[in-house]
Amino acid sequence: xxxxxxxxxxxxxxxxxxxxxxxxxxxxxxxxxxxxxxxxxxxxxxxxxxxxxxxxxxxxxxxxxxxxxxxxxxxxxxxxxxxxxxxxxxxxxxxxxxxxxxxxxxxxxxxxxxxxxxxxxxxxxxxxxxxxxxxxxxxxxxxxxxxxxxxxxxxxxxxxxxxxxxxxxxxxxxxxxxxxxxxxxxxxxxxxxxxxxxxxxxxxxxxxxxx
Length: 211
Hints:
211 residues; alpha/beta; seven-stranded mixed β-sheet; globular
């Protein structure tokens, strides 16, 4: 099995936990995700900001880069980023045994994180301006923790749908939170410190809850 494309910021020695970051994408798009991808770069910028706090807590941070830029429903048995995310989790299992994992996903990455949350290693999902259409399944979050942040001025994905999803997730998840980021948009270009704070505080809290 070929390893997936991961940017890694590993702690020295054995980590107490792992944050796997999942970037955004498009509904349709079969092109490769290159180093020029804005979605990937935004997640990488967040990675740089949160890694220090993660490392002080003994937690490693990985950022996955998908093979394809789109979700591409109906093109393959699974949407394009989902097999990549599952392969990243399998790689973590091979290298780190039973280390607990929290998934931090932006936009399409939030939807991907929910889809693979049923992996045994996953303890929780932190979703940032996630793409969660009506009817998106909450079952993968059973027993996991879920926290979502969304701005009310988002015109790409829907804060209202995210809030509704969080309410449904509360029926199966260990915990579910919706955080209103106020009148800001989708791309996390405003209120950057607040996005970063939400991501790292929830991720570390989910990992501590597992201990």
